[in-house]
Predict the structure.
Amino acid sequence: MNHHTYSLHKINSSNSFGFSATDYSRFKFGDNAVSAKFGRALAKGFINEVIAAMPKAAQLVVISSPYSYIPTATFAMKNYFVAQLNRWLADNEWPVLQEAKVHRTVTYKEDYGALDAEQRLKLISNDSFHIDAAFLQGKVLLFLDDIKITGSHERMITNMINTFNLTNDVHMLYFAELVNNTIHPNIENDLNYHEVKSIFDLEQIINSGNFCINTRIVKYILNSDHHDFSLFICYQTNEFNNHLYDMALGNGYHIIEAYSQNLNHLKSYIFINQPKLVQHGN
């Protein structure tokens, strides 16, 4: 197995990243227009710096960052990465990409971006990852993630690869990578929340016309102050509130105590505001 790592942007400074911190923050909270920009840029960089120099290879498989039911922000970026790379592959008579999923079984409320390297590894070590090893046999694997900070996530993916006895060539792809180890890992948190200081900052993203729900925004909303949460959902559409509730259930957030007050309130609010179906005889 050959293991390669590629990152489009190398972060060597705490205030200069090579990309917009505003864009990155909006991307993490579901701005699909930024996901498109990031995904296409990552694909172009990977083509120019890696793929174009490779011999025409076996089947490539792209695998987004692990998730259970609610996709991550990386999943949205992956969609545009795939579309951009497929154009090049088709033009150059390569097989177009296949896709696979890393399934994860553990959910937690902690904000990964706020943790140091040791805390990240301890938290993510509780996760259980699974992938369809038979489907991947003989293929080149492209594991896609938005940012590499301490490498904890990559170590877990490597452990999974070893557990399933995969001998494939592997490329770990990142939109950005922290390469200066004197910078604290919580720089990721600074980037994540650059444009989101409160739950009410989410409205401009949700109402932008380019919104794509993801794990981070669901957790952030459910973990908000109850008064703020109650006010926030009053301003959202029935469609959004129902989608939020269904996503939360899908990820098992109804069994996380920290979310219970807000989630129960959302359930009651949806029931009260559900359009009444008037039927003959009712």
